[in-house]
Amino acid sequence: MTFEDQHLKYLQLALEEAKKCTPTPTAFCVGCVLVSRLSAEPLVMSTGYSRELPGNTHAEANALSKFRSLPQEEVCRFDPAASHAEILASADVYTTMEPCSIRTSGLSPCADALIDAHVKRCFIGVGEPDDFVQCEGAQKLVSAGIDVVWLKGLEEESLSVARRGH
Ligand SMILES: Nc1nc(O)c(N)c(N[C@@H]2O[C@H](COP(=O)(O)O)[C@@H](O)[C@H]2O)n1
């Protein structure tokens, strides 16, 4: 399996999450998957999509919240000795759209949430177009020392799913 194939598989999963979003003309439909590589086989830690959790919530923040709310006995399968925070610090993030760096609602941006969680790498389906704001999410992650990988192959689909309802 090539590097791209290995990672596109999880981005495809994130795209399935994005398709679950209720479309809205004022925001994007984004999906996110967190993957742990602490054991021999990669394991999906959690998934999220825009507006999945109550309120005006974003995909990446929802995936982080859902992982943090898993009981310890479920988290054991990623690493029996590690805490939620330690497992998150080794996570790969797959998101169909570049994590947001500014929110029109004034809520905390996803790039900041990923930086605070100290995730390892962020694989992105497509850059955020400037439909609403000028996004600097990828640059923010790089500046914080997080590896950013722009995956090739699902850009068009990621964008058309994101713009559903516009
Ligand atoms: N990366 C990302 N994930 C999501 O789940 C999103 N909905 C977005 N959209 C970005 O956030 C802005 C909307 O901010 P508010 O929800 O209104 O606070 C929108 O302009 C996009 O930048 N991005």
TrEMBL record:
Residues 5-148 form the CMP/dCMP-type deaminase domain. GO terms for biological process: nucleobase-containing compound metabolic process. SUPFAM superfamilies: Cytidine deaminase-like. Coiled coil: none annotated. Signal peptide: none annotated. One of its GO terms (molecular function) is diaminohydroxyphosphoribosylaminopyrimidine deaminase activity. This is Diaminohydroxyphosphoribosylamino-pyrimidine deaminase. It comes from Lentinula detonsa. The lineage of its organism: Eukaryota, Fungi, Dikarya, Basidiomycota, Agaricomycotina.
